[in-house]
Specification:
The structure holds two protein chains of two kinds. Chain A is of the alpha+beta class. Chain A has a domain of about 220 residues: Dipeptide-binding Protein, domain 3 (Roll). In chain A, the strands form six sheets. Chain A has a five-stranded mixed beta sheet. A four-stranded mixed beta sheet of chain A has the order 1-10-9-8, covered by helices on one side. In chain A, strands 4-5-7-6 form a four-stranded antiparallel beta sheet, with helices on one face. In chain A, helix 8 packs antiparallel against helix 10 and helix 14 runs antiparallel to helix 15. Chain B has one domain: MetI-like (MetI-like fold). In chain B, helix 2 packs across helix 11, helix 6 crosses helix 9 and helix 9 runs parallel beside helix 10. The chains are: A alpha+beta, B mainly alpha. At the A-B interface, helix 6, helix 7, helix 11 and strand 15 of A face loops of B. Chain B: It is a multi-pass membrane protein. Chain B: InterPro entries: BP-dependent_transpt_permease (IPR050366), MetI-like (IPR000515), MetI-like_sf (IPR035906), OppC_N (IPR025966).
Amino acid sequence: MATLAGALGAPLAASAEGTLTAFTSGYRSLNPGVQSGAATGVPGSQIFAGLVLIGADYGAEPYLATGWEVSEDGLTYTFRLVEGATFHDGAPITSADVAFSLDVVKANHPFGPAMFGKVETVETPDDLTAVFKLSEPAPGLLLSLQPLLMPILPRHVYGDGQEVKKHPRNMTDVVGSGPFKVEENNPAEKLILVKNEDFFIEGRPKLDRIVFPLVKDGLTRMLMVEKGEIDYAPFSGAKPTDAERLEEAGGVTVSKDGYGAVGYIHYLEMNLRDGPFADVKVRQALAMALDTGFVARVLFGGRAEVGTGPLHTGNPFYTADVPRLEPDMEKAAAMLDEAGYPAGSGGARFGFTLDVPSWALQSHGPMAEYIRAQLGKLGVSVELRRAPDFGTWVSRISSFDYEATLNGSFNYPDPVIGVHRHFDCDNIRNVIWSNTQGYCDPAMDALLDAAAVEQDFDVRKGIYAEIQQKAVADQVFIWMPEEFTTTILGARVEGAPDGAFGPLAPWDEMTVSAE
Amino acid sequence: MSEPPVMTSMPPMPPMPVPEPVSPARQAWRMFRRNGAAMIGLALLLLVLAEAALGPALYSVSPDDMVWMPLTPPGASEYWLGTDYVGRDLLAGLIHGGRVTLIVGGSAAALTVAIGVLVGAFAGYYGGRIDNALMRVTEFFQVLPNLLLAMVVVMLFGASLVNIAIAIGAVSWTSTARLTRVEFMRLREMDYVRAERSIGASDARLIWAVILPNAAPPLIVSAALSAGTAILFEAGLAFLGLGDPNAMSWGRIIGDNRPYVLDAWWAVTFPGLAIFLAVLAISLVGDGLNDALNPRLRER
């Protein structure tokens, strides 16, 4: 009876059992192959499948690929695909689609070259075998083959000669390969995904529907979570104070798990080209003046991790063993004296404009206020400049037309993707989140190049330790506390993905129990 | 049957007291004083102005310093009104912010009046094509959504206090212009204006020295009310995150602390109350002025 009514389209309470309500903060594309970011990545990882999944220990697990072999020299990866897997329109998923997807991502994704630059060709000896041929070893390759970073796209849809980045099928009539299909896509209101009955893993997904209502305002989102109108809120935007309140009220879980692979860090970026910031002594003095431990403890309620360097504390290559400067205002003042910025009349030394991005204002706002107040005590006057929108900030920073900015970026599991870009001499480009500050040191480049091809994990970890130590010694950035990234889970939700990519992985084992 | 005539002897009339000549300002003050609400408004306004003028000197805590744990409730520390989301003293913010808010509101209102009077005076005085042209411009500004236009101006030119005042002034002068125009159209045909014109007074003299002073009363009222609107505007812009991030203002305190409203009611309530009281005071005074300066109401 209930099935019949459901089929007739009557929204019965009984059929709501398998409906999960999440949220979206707004997206312009549902194709994570050409658009990075969590807003596209969260639904995108449901719509599209990848070759592998990444477990909590950063190990690759079979997904669309049932198995793979890596040659001794690390230059050949052979993947075997699941038999009988189909796209949402019924067409079979073949190795040709894998090869096509890799080309698309390599050419269109912001990290395409970093992730797959060394993949020269993908050979397709038969429909279910894909052979990746590399020019150099790429130790992090498997990490980039999960659905967020390399979704398997249908060649028969996107291979029609149109530019994939602007392809209309990224938003309308999306044909995916993953556990959920797009039922309704109205980016101004909500996105509804429904179960893919023909998913290649038997018995999954377990949910019938996922609804993503558009909720841009963080405060509204928290109220909806509190009222139980959102069951599952990845990248919830909850502030430490919200987390405290929600935990006190009970009923929901605020979890910091599952963001290690993304590795969301924050830092004060100084334009190193000229002015006071060209001098490492000045940067070190500011680093000593800014007590980031205080910021984490007091402004973020002790819930944010104190960042120590370019790697996120959850990254497998992270080391805490870096030459970090202890907060010391007197020493900082002495160093500024030494660097040629003595306190003038009224204690003034120099001043700069600090750009405050329009995004992640819940973190950048308090940080900016702290920096202004704290450096003011040192005689360094900070004028805040708030960007009215994302585009304005991006154009200021990517054209190097700034003195300093608060910034933040994602590590992604392999540092080659999210870390190298900030330090490589060749990556000083007019592109946001590249080496916009203009840092260049051949010694650093040599370390980065070595780390990129080293296949032995422990040796590689050693190289990354050196990279972190050098970045901190050169004080390329002043690292601020890491983002307090959370998922909020309602009491009815079970089986949320718990791998390194957290919610940026398929939600095919999730269930929502009845009230 | 005849009754004795009742003799009514008229006592000699005492000489009528000649009323002292009363200046219009004094007369208006008398009217104003009788208006209870207006007097309350005036008292409030003086209080707000005194706070903005003297407060920062009397209360030495800096509004920018982080002095205590963030979001400390009122009464829980030596900072009476509690602290905001980064631990700044809310009372210091209110006191220093009042000055900024009033200066921005005041200068925006002055700009509103300046543009409005200029446009309205020329349109009303000259009429014809000039009137037509100026009124089309006025209508153009009138149909644009004010807050949106101000937001665009601030976004394009940056959120400094000067730009914010200019943005507010630039979008809210239309009603003053219309009011001035109507007054000028009415007054330019008055006998005393004609007389002045007939003895060869220049246009400039007629506009600024003859008509404008006589058109002043409604304009004063409108100026007072536009100061209130300007304060609300400034608060609105700051609330939307378009305030000057380097100057504490009431609107900015609300805007900054809005995300924390579920945890800290005080951080948005007190600046909200301050704005409410300041605008209320200005409105009451404006109303009182309106009554006091309106000759038709003087007989009441």
